[in-house]
Structure formats: structure tokens, C-alpha cells
Amino acid sequence: MLGTLRRVIEAHGGLDSWNKHKALSVDLVVGGVLWGLKGQAGKLERTNVTVGLGEEWASHQPFGTDNRRTRFSPDRVAIEDAQGKVVEELAAPRRSFAGHALDTLWTEPQLAYFAGYAMWTYLNLPFLALHEGVEVEELPIWLENGEAWRPLRLTFSEAIATHSKVQTIYAGDDGLLRRHDYAVEIAADSAAAHYVGKYVTVDGIKFPTERRVYATDSDGKPMRDLMTVSVDLANFRFP
């Protein structure tokens, strides 16, 4: 394991603590301009998500009206009613985004796919860097907010559904993540700078409770007047 990655893993609670658990649930309050741009405003404004830890799956509930829920995996996404009956599903969901522009509207299953892989990625970091389908490379020191952050470039295999094949995470002097960069391939490769903070400790593992995602300019600087997604997280628990 690379030295920086080892320090980051230990700062977030260590691999032994992480490996005790198979799933994580958390309550979400979601905002930002992305949802309206995609024609799906309000569907995930206040919800709960449960994600697999390691194995890639996720479920949001409620999803829109009538207490519906989602079932996400990389090769299939479904929307179920409150009794678990499938009301809509989409196989090979990634293919359905072919030719999409930034302002192309999403269907509900496409929204469920995006939200599922995004929250699975976020909640599994930084431990996701140890996944067998992820390669890790240390990058030069990054200066931001008067701090020297240590970046790690993550390259994901095609088997993992996530924002983009190549992403970068940044750790502060304390080893905790500060920033996460990626391009949203299913939304015209739109570049994003995702900031995290206000950590809490749950069963020895540290999680950020605030996430703010901004579009970036050509130099990778966040456009602070263009917050695409906000997520506030609370009540972390291991089911």
C-alpha cells in the first residue's frame, strides 16, 4: 500500500474497523441545480440510502412519491413500490446515456442509476481505493485553502460503475479527505470538484456529513456560484 494511502486509511478508522461491516445506511438532504436541470427536482430531496461496503449496490427510499425505493447495481437498476414490486427497471443502464448532453433530461431509472453509483462511491471512499478493480498513484502536493493536500489518482476498472474511469482524492495533513475530483461521464463529461467536511465518527470510522459539488473551470478551480449538488448526511448506521 502506498504511504499516503496507508495514512488516509488509518485516519478514517483503519481497515480492520471497516471490514467488520457489509452495509451502511444514512439519511440525506439533497440539493443543487443538477436535479432540476435533469428534470428530476425533488425526487431525492429527503431520503435514506443504504449501500454495500465493497460489493457495489445501493438503495434509496423514499424515491419520489408513495414511498417507492430503488435497487441499483452496475448492470441493472429498478424502482419498486413500498411492497417490493418492480414498477420500472433498466438493464445495462450505462448504455442508456449514450449521446447525452449536459441538459439532456433523465428518466427515473437513470436518476436512480446516477444516485446509486454516486452514493456508493462516496460512502466507500477512501477504502474503495483498496478495491481490486482500482489502481492508485500518488500525485504532487496540491496547495489549496492555505493547506498542502496530498492527492491520490484512482483509476477504476470497467466493472465498477462510477463517475469516470480516472478520479482524484485529496487528503489534508490529518489524513482526512478534503476534495474529490471527477468528470461525470453520463452528463457530457462535466468536470466537478467535490468538497467534503464536518466529520463524525461512527463505530471508529470517520465520515463527512457535508458534501458540496461545484462545476470547475479549465484550470480545475471550482466555480463557487455553480453548486451542482449538495448533500447533508446524518444518522449513519451499520444495518
Radius of gyration: 17 Å
DSSP summary, beta strand count: 14
Strand fraction: over 45%
Note the main sheet. Answer: 11 strands, antiparallel
Overall pLDDT metric: 97
Q: Which overall shape is indicated by the principal axes computed on the Cα atoms?
A: globular
Poorly predicted runs are none
Distance between the termini: 29 Å
Helical fraction equals 10-25%
Number of helices: 4
Series of H and E elements: HHEHEEEEEHEEEEEEEE
Structural class: mainly beta
CATH architecture: Clam
- What is the CATH first-level class name? Mainly Beta
Mind telling me the CATH superfamily name?
Lipoprotein localisation LolA/LolB/LppX
Can you describe this structure?
It is built from four helices and 14 strands. 33% of the residues are buried. The model has no long low-confidence stretch (mean pLDDT 97). It has 239 residues and is mostly beta strands. It is globular. A hairpin with a 2-residue loop joins β8 and β9 (147-156). It has a single domain (3-234), classed as Clam (outer membrane lipoprotein receptor (LolB), chain A).
Name a few traits of the molecule.
outer membrane lipoprotein receptor (LolB), chain A; mainly beta; 239 residues; three-stranded antiparallel β-sheet; 14 strands; 14% helix; eleven-stranded antiparallel β-sheet
